[in-house]
Amino acid sequence: MTARFEAIGSDGSKTRLNLLGKTDEELQKFFADIGEAPYRGKQLFNWIYQKQVEGFEPITGFTKSLRAKLSDIAEIKYPEVAGSEESKFDGTLKLLLQLEDGNKIETVLIPKEKSPDEGGSIRETVCVSTQVGCPLDCKFCATGAMKLSRNLTTGEIVSQVLIAQRHARKRITNVVFMGMGEPLLNYDAVVKAIGILTDDRSINIRAKGITVSTAGISDKLPLLARESVKFRLAISLHSLDEEVRSLLMPINRKYKLERLLPAVKEFAKLRHDRITFEYILFDRLNDTDADIARLVRLSGEIPLKINLLRYHPLDHLSRLGLQIDPAALKLKPSDRIDKFADGLREKGITVFVRSNSGEDIDGACGQLAAKNVRKHKNSEVTA
Fold first, then answer.
1. Exposure winner among 178, 199, 300, 338, fewest CB in 10 A?
2. Are residues 165 and 34 in the same domain?
3. 140 and 269 share a domain?
4. 229-262: per-residue pLDDT in tens?
5. Catalytic (active-site) positions
6. pTM of this prediction exceeds 0.85
């Protein structure tokens, strides 16, 4: 007897199993369960993720009767592109995706010129979301103000990359799990998505091109370090002072630095890799000489590089509860960042000052909030 996968929805209609997000092994089992040869799963895996079909009809290696059988019980269904907005300054494209249950998420495609020593041309990076909203309530992040609706499925995560690829000028080379949500609070789906994205029979993103950014869910790091999937780890740090970090990131009250940093150190040791620490600068809060000294000490314990980011002012700036000296607002952000970066470089630390790609469309770090993005004239896109 073959397994049946269709179910009856609340409106009485028949629903089908969405195969987008299934691994090679899961697809092989699916075919075995419906009385077909398991190797068909390997074929379908390639058609879904490398050839990016949206139905079974184009799959020429399947018989007509098999395609009809699959269409009756399964589907390959993507989220709908409900809106888009393109930066007039740097070409960053923000996509508003509507999920099947009506929830919305945002995905950002960032084209960036490579440096001459990288061969020039364009590096295409897609910033993907892992949750609808986020439960962490980081005070500098618009997504945190949304709260959490639910985790995304593996298919909803992977589909963001596949949809972005349709709008990219070149092949996507980098995927950063830095969009809406905390990746390590959707652990299984994120690890599974990385496995699919890095498979050489899929979209085949190189391991060094995958970055998972976490606010510091330290109890997941030992498990994550032992996963077979390859990626780079980034820690959303922003301060090495417990009190200041707790002000910026309430999650630090649970996962304190004294607990997080040893876990990161062990992760780096097990993976034999350098850790990226993300650091948003706030005037007179985390950009002092004492902050530089703390980071220097950390570099002696953990192999690292530091990404410095400029804070992107948001409507909810008052959520920080900070009294900003008006005089400080007159200081050019680049002046403050350059001074801080130079102080770190003088101590031998690798520092990158990240651009504010997509700031004019609320597509930069901390700005994603799944609002109804505007559609630029002559720039509307469809899935």
1. 300
2. no
3. yes
4. 999 999 999 999 999 999 999 999 999 999 999 9
5. 106, 365
6. yes
